[in-house]
Amino acid sequence: MPRINADTLDLEERVVRTNKCQKTHKGGRTLSWNVLVAVGDRKGHVGVGLGKARAIPDAIRKGVEEAKKHIILIPLIGSTIPHEIEGSAGASIVMLKPASPGTGVVAGGSVRPILELAGVRDVLAKSLGSANAINTAAATMVGLKMLKRAEETAALRGKSVAEMVPWMARLLAEEKAFAGAKEETEVQASAEEETTEVPAA
Question: Which domains does the chain have, with CATH numbers?
Answer without folding.
Answer: 1-73 (3.30.160.20), 74-181 (3.30.230.10)
